[in-house]
Design goal:
heterodimer, A: about 375 residues, alpha+beta, 6-stranded mixed beta sheet, 8 helices, globular, B: about 130 residues, 6-stranded antiparallel beta sheet, 9 strands
């Protein structure tokens, strides 16, 4: 999570709501966003135990569409590594956009909303890069529309999210909604009241991401709070996603790392035909990788591991990696992190040392995710 | 915000109770509120000689690691093991049970003007307002 100065930051449609709630605001990916309201710990627990709501208006939304459904799906399959042909209308999947070297340009969710129409939900920090990358690869018969500036979004997350989301829909004056299944998308309303809801999230709990015109975002946000959702900031978003080993682009993913190295091979469809980066991934899948993103947990009580802390051979002086992510897990009460370890060390049960201000703390490679459970 | 009158303050939000021997050091209520829930505290070794302004301890929230500076010079003669075991004590009682360490003041601290250079409660109150 990189912090930047407060100048020229984009403002979410919910900016005044955050300030009124006493949120602490920080610069993130060019946006002024809430890092916390009551505190990371209570917000984290609210999402694990009940329900929380996040402003995700900074995220990007790109529409890809055309007249010929096979032309659209063929193009998407050539620029993304998962297989969009597996998507029926109203279904979505996690996928990645790669460069020629197989490195990650962005990771995203793609939803098929009509026969020849797809919604791509991308990282805030990568919107401009993604659009330029996709335009470079564009073909006749496919259109790309970036609607990120016109769309507001919130994520309702937690074991009580379905009940709370249904209350929000009814409070908005709609009949109760047939909620989509995991990774599904449902749209309703029209004009300013139009909204799309996707059953997904970045917390590892059941949850919904709602996209709506910027002007109607405040209404949805307030309905979420009224229905009992606890406002949650980027701080809890980071601890929640790291407990589930969900990668953060810019930290755990980069243009220098492939999805195979990141342990995301499940989302790479090598059998679907050619796509950007395929040859490198196929080679890595066949011959193995030299480093792999591993989950590390401190063996004893210790300080919270943080990004860029050095990872050393156990008891040795050789640095083998640096942490790409790290935090104190609120659920486990233990330090956790991820690092690209040499393959010999990236095995469950292997020990390494993490350097914290010159002191070494023993850590063990553990099975992903750190925290098991729904969904 | 609670700012006890009998303490002296550093502009980096440490407090020192210097009219007792050894002097007691902690961080202010304002500081703990800004830092939010503390999850880890690293204290200096007993016997360490510290100078005014030296980084001597670290308090960590989920989001950040923060250096704590010695308000004045002296020898660390006691540390609060209770906050090491339960860092939240600093959040709940920054001026009481959440103290961090005790200092036997050195010459510079006692007579050399280091104490006089710290903020009194009024000055610290305006510093954080």
């Amino acid at each position: 999570m990189s912090e930047t100065g407060s100048e020229q930051l984009n403002r979410s449609p919910l900016d005044a709501e955050h300030v009124a709630l006493g949120a602490r605001m920080v610069g993130f990916a060019g946006w002024s966003m809430p890092i916390q309201y009551a505190g990371v710990m209570p917000e984290h627990r609210a999402v694990r135990d009940a329900v929380g709501v996040f402003d995700i208006s900074h995220m990007g939304q790109l529409w890809v569409e055309g007249d010929d459904s096979s032309a659209v799906s063929a193009w998407l399959n050539s620029v993304l590594c998962n297989d969009v042909c597996k998507l029926e209308i109203a279904e979505g999947q996690y996928t990645l956009m790669l460069n020629e070297a197989g490195g990650v340009v962005d990771d995203l969710l793609i939803y098929r909303t009509a026969e020849a129409q797809y919604l791509l939900v991308v990282n805030a920090s990568r919107i401009a890069v993604d659009v330029a990358h996709l335009q470079d690869l564009m073909v006749d018969g496919v259109q790309l529309r970036n609607v990120s500036d016109e769309v507001g979004a919130i994520a309702v997350q937690g074991p009580r999210s379905a009940e709370v989301f249904q209350k929000m829909v009814i409070a908005a004056g709609f009949a109760s909604l047939e909620l989509p299944p995991r990774n599904g998308i449902v749209s309703s309303g029209d004009g300013d009241q139009q909204f799309s809801v996707c059953r997904t999230g970045y917390t590892g709990e059941d949850g919904f991401e709602l996209f709506c015109p910027a002007v109607s975002t405040v209404g949805w946000w307030r309905r979420a709070l009224d229905a009992g959702a606890v406002p949650c900031g980027l701080g809890a978003r980071d601890t929640l996603r790291l407990e589930k080993c969900y990668p953060l682009n810019g930290s755990d993913l980069s243009e220098q790392r492939t999805p195979i190295e990141a342990g995301l091979g499940f989302f790479v469809a090598l059998d679907k035909g050619d796509f950007v980066g395929r040859s490198v991934l196929a080679e890595q899948k066949a011959n193995g990788v030299e480093q792999r993103l591993a989950a590390l947990q401190l063996v004893d009580k210790g300080p919270p591991p943080r990004p860029h802390y050095g990872v050393f051979e156990a008891g040795g002086e050789t640095q083998v990696a640096e942490l790409s992510s790290g935090t104190m897990s609120p659920t486990l009460g233990a330090g956790i992190g991820m690092a690209y370890l040499p393959i010999a060390l990236a095995k469950v049960g292997q020990r390494v040392d993490i350097d914290v201000r010159g002191r070494r703390f023993a850590a063990e490679v553990v099975k992903k995710p750190f925290v098991k459970g729904a969904p | 915000m609670n700012v006890p009158e009998q303490l002296k303050y550093r502009d980096s939000h440490e407090w020192i109770e210097a009219n007792v021997d050894p002097a007691k050091v902690g961080i202010s209520d304002h500081a703990q509120a800004e830092l939010t829930d503390l999850v880890y505290i690293e204290l200096p070794e007993i016997g360490r000689l510290v100078t005014a302004g030296e980084a001597v301890a670290v308090v960590e929230s989920v989001k950040s690691a923060n250096d704590i500076y010695a308000p004045v010079g002296g020898e660390v003669v006691e540390v609060n093991e209770a906050v090491v075991n339960d860092p939240a004590l600093v959040n709940t009682d920054a001026f009481g049970d959440g103290w961090l360490f005790k200092l036997k003041l050195d010459e510079g601290a006692a007579g050399g003007g280091e104490l006089a250079a710290l903020l009194d409660a009024d000055a610290y109150r305006s510093h954080i307002s």
